[in-house]
Amino acid sequence: MKAAFIEQTGGCEEIQFGELPDPSPAPNEVLVRISAASVNPIDTYIRGGMVDMQLPLPFIVGSDFSGTVEDVGENVAQWKTGDRVWGANQGGHGRQGTSAELACVGQEWLHSIPEGISEEDAVAVALVGITTHIGLVLRARVHEGETVFVNGGSGGVGSMVVQMAKTLGARVITTASSDEKLAKAKAFGADEGINYKTGNVAEQVLELAPDGVDVLWETRRDTDLDWAISLLAKRGRMVVMAGRDARPMLPVGPFYVKDCALHGFAMFNYSAEEQRRCGDEINRWLTEGNLKANIDRVLPLSEAAAAHKLQEENTINGEGTLAGKIILKP
Predict the structure, then answer these.
(1) Given 3-state DSSP classes, what are the helix, strand and coil percentages for the chain, each rounded to the nearest 5?
(2) Tens digits of per-residue pLDDT, 189-231?
(3) Is there a smaller number of Cβ atoms within 10 Å at the N or the C end of the chain?
(4) 304-319: pLDDT as tens digits
(5) Has residue 274 been placed in a domain?
(6) Beta bridge partners of 264
(7) CA separation, residue 10 to residues 54, 94, 174, 326 (Å)
(8) Tens of pLDDT along 126-175?
(9) Which residues contact 316 (CB under 8 A, 6 or more apart)?
(10) Is the distance from CB of 111 to CB of 283 less than 8 angstroms?
């Protein structure tokens, strides 16, 4: 099979594209013919060696996938050949990645693709969708009538936060780096948008929500907790899910006086059972039209190295040339 893989961790140039042996499903595994894979910041961290974990070598990069069941191993009863599926827990923790024509996946990590939803859309909402559901539903427990502020609402995770918060009945305020990206965020459901290149975000947020926001979702790697907590309402909750090397100071005084809560999490810490709940609601919202994929571009799998470079330029360097997911097609 064709695959994008590395033989050692390092820069984007370590990614090779070529032939690897076809995998065979072990007991409790499903062999999936990949229709599409997507690129996430975590994929670049694992490839670059910034996440300390043992990788099988050669190691196929990538976490997300969508495709069709090609074969099943022993003890697999839920899935059969021809089923359309998606998932988001490969490419680490001893598991091979998804930037290939075929992948073996534990049956518990698979989700069905709803009727009428494309493989590209399914893979574009996979990891970012589960991440957002964990943060908004399982951790922050957003409910109808609350105000949610998303600091960066046009990218992969940010656009999911906008849509899910709106679906949960919240009022949504967001930021973006241009009027064009703000228009995109509003198309996804944001009620109010702030151009952080031209406006004072803190002032404008408090003008829109004088008592503060109930939930603040930070998508940036470098978190300013003093700034963020100043925007929270009493009993406000903040969600952080980026910035592995970040070490911001916590202003304990205003934090405890306002009864605030800080939720940090990593998707890969959540069990298959917990993620099943996320996947089921994501599928329901996709079917109902409340959740839409945010795809920036689709590239051939042979351009995986270029895709990783583009993701790094935006995640780490903040170049602003990406607004949505990069999809790779075998």
Answers:
(1) 35, 25, 40
(2) 999 999 999 989 999 999 999 999 999 999 888 888 999 999 9
(3) N
(4) 999 999 999 998 877 8
(5) no
(6) 240
(7) 14, 18, 35, 20
(8) 999 999 999 999 999 999 999 999 998 888 899 999 999 999 999 999 99
(9) 221
(10) yes
Which amino acid would we find at residue 278? C
Rounded CA gap, 204 and 210, in Å? 10
253, 133: one domain: yes
Looking up residue 165, the CATH number of its domain turns out to be 3.40.50.720
The answer to whether residues 258 and 235 touch, using CB atoms and an 8 Å cutoff, is yes
| Domain finish residue from 223, 251, 267 | 267
Q: Which domain holds residue 150?
A: 127-267
Q: Do 135 and 260 lie in a common domain?
A: yes
Q: What are the pLDDT digits (tens) for 95-118? A: 999 999 999 999 999 999 999 999
In percent, the amount of the chain with pLDDT more than 90 equals 86
| Residues 114 and 136 reside in one and the same domain | no
Residue pair 278/130 in contact (Cβ under 8 Å)? The answer is yes
What does the block give as tokens for 13? 């140039």
Residue 316's pLDDT is what?
Answer: 80
CA torsion sign for 153, 154, 159, 165 is positive
